Amino acid sequence: MQILIRRYPPVEAEHRPRTRRHAKHVLQERNKRSLAAVAIFTRVLMSCAVAMTLAVPVTSAPAAGADPDCPPNIGYQPECAYRPFYTPPTPLPDGVAGDIIRTEPSRIALDPAGHGNYSGTGTRIMYRSTDGRGQPVAVSGTYIEPDRPWAGSGPRPLIAFAPFHQGLGDQCAVSRLLSEGSFHYGGFLDFVFYFEAGFVATMLDRGFALVITDYQGTGTYGPPTAGIRVPTATAVLDSARAAKRLPGTSLTADGPVALWGYGPGGTAAGAAAEMAPSYAPELDVVGAWIGAPMADPSLSLDYADGSAMVATVGYALNSFVAAFPEAAPSLRQALTPRGLDFVNKTRYECADEVILKFQFRHLQPYFNQDIRQMFTAEPVRSMLAAQKLGTLKPSAPVNIDINRFDPLNPWVGARQLASDWCSQGADVEFWTNQQPPFLNKVGVNHLLTYFVDGERGMQWIADRFNGVPTTPNCDRLPPFELPGG
């Protein structure tokens, strides 16, 4: 099972039809792209459904004699089998950020049965990184060496892939999902489908080497930091360092690196892009594709409330508690019993499970005070402000891609990020996907844009590796209020 991603010629978002006939042609082309993207998106959902049909037993009752301390993982090894690798040594060995702590071969498959494989060889890695307080921490991930040669210019390039978060539980780590055929099922609602598998496969087919971080606290046992600017950035940058220090790869120490991410991964890639000059100046970062970033978390509350993605607020609360332990008591005191249950469940469950459990809920019943006042008062206001992107200048070209009607990560935040980076002299290309809103409460415009624009983003990355001149548009950024927006 392989998800195919068609390549479409770029069409400028702000392009205006010159004639009625031309307008009809533009509309037809947009409709073709929309229908093709819907078909791809439907194929992903059908693949997930087929995988679930094959993997889910008739009953969700645990097997007789099952070990409660070793949860099942239908179709692959039980969770406890991962522990020897993912438990960091105490104390961590001496070293610097990016040093390899341990490795092991990693099965990588495109489907749970292992019939479809990536064109590459996987290595599971644990490497040294830096947490939000400057302390060393162990992070896990996967390096994939492509089978195909690199046909472009210069040495083989590396993409530091910042994945879309699949949940905060250790079973949701992407390095595990890649081993499990991009599908985890532990019984009843404990499942998640890793929908970025098609992008990983396509990048390998292009000859790009990949390193995919699990982020701090996911995979390796410890508190999660999903969406927290500094530790997600360091996890991405140190994964690139670790990949270059792995023995037996086709990478060179001075070879080019690109950053890639969408949604939560786009936020992490954006943070890594602006921190790279100061945190990892030795890396030759030649570009960063930043898809649908949460550029300003203070704008997100109204977007998540009442949507299928309301559980993202639970992820954020858990990450804030982990990253700012001094604020944990006040945050927990603000929660009702339902809110505590919400936070506890989103801490240990994967994305698909919490979406099913909490979709379309409103957030106010989870709090015993006005939620909007809480998010605009201390300490939450300062914590959110610290996660805002745009305060540092990326030295590499960046491409920001987002849908105008993104229902989860506001377009205005990404547009402001482009302005902030442009004002500092960065090389910025800002692309607005104009697919009209469709079932936005279930996040269609957020996810569908990835499949519409993903191949365009990969070509942009390939151009950076091949030295093609960039096309920044800081002087032509769209207004904050587009016609009809």
TrEMBL record:
It holds the Pfam family LIP. GO terms for molecular function: triacylglycerol lipase activity. InterPro entries: AB_hydrolase_fold (IPR029058), Lipase_secreted (IPR005152). GO terms for biological process: lipid catabolic process. It comes from the Bacteria. This is Putative inactive lipase. It comes from Mycolicibacterium vanbaalenii.
